[in-house]
Amino acid sequence: MFDIGFSELVVIMVVALIVIGPERLPKVARTMGLLWGRAQRYINGVRADIERDMQMDELKQLKQKVEQEAAAAMQAASQAGQAVDNHLKSLEQEAASVEQPKPRSAPAVGNTPKEQPAPEQRQFPID
Prior knowledge:
Elements: H1 6-20, H2 25-97
């Protein structure tokens, strides 16, 4: 953030020694150190709050996405169930409309069916 080199720091310390004086310089340095620490803690707290808010927004978006996917899965499952139900109903209707086969009656005594001659068998030459 600030680009302060060693030479610039020495110049600031010399000016502070001349302006403030050697008697009050340790108190001022201690106070400046305390204020600098408070400022850093405040900045770190604000940064942590911002990061926490960003994570909460990401979690809310993820939750919303998961809820949408779950709703889509539920809808697909419902549609599949309805399709299966419709198919079962159509099979039941088809089975009901098919007539039951009637049992064949036995031929009367004395009426024997004529035997049909067996078809001629062809012989194929073997090479």
